[in-house]
Amino acid sequence: NVFGLIIITPVISWYLLKDWDVIKNRIEQSVPIKHKKKFSKNAEDINHILASYFRGQFLVSFLLAIYYSVTFFLIDLNYSLFLGIFTGLLTFIPILGILISMVTSILLVFLQYFDFIYIIYVLGIFLLGQLIESYLLTPKIIGKKLGIHPAMIIFSIIVFGATFGIVGIFFAIPLTSILIFYFEKFIKNINK
Predict the structure, then answer these.
(1) 86, 101 Cβ separation under 8 angstroms
(2) pLDDT by residue (tens digit) across 17-49?
(3) Cα separation of 117 and 85, whole Å?
(4) Beta carbons of 142 and 60 less than 8 angstroms apart
């Protein structure tokens, strides 16, 4: 299932991005005339939230690619630049991406050095990288872009992960930001 999800998700994402305007127009046509303006505004708000999330996630992945490339270079690992970029890009996939990167890195370092101390170095690099991502980059960068407190981001990842597993972790931040946006909108309407 996980392997299928890894293959299917990019394909579906590509088609959704490619045909988003067609999909949106078809949905808008099925919305009653009196609700079209409200629907368009909501779709625009959600689009803005998701765009901010993906820009933030791309920046986090880019910074992690630099971190992994530099640290792999410091332990003199062959293909450190490629492996760092590969690892940075795979951090976009929660848990599974980092596991694939870690196993690949451990295999390469073992084949290069035949020494277990380098495996410990790689494990330390990944542990520090995950701490940096989870407690610094994601809450600060994505939270700032979405206007969500870093503690709320960490809490949402824990809750969605415990409830829905890996898929929940992947969608935790965008769904939380959409829920917070509409909750704030609801509170404003109540106060009027």
Answers:
(1) yes
(2) 788 788 878 887 888 888 778 888 888 888 888
(3) 23
(4) yes
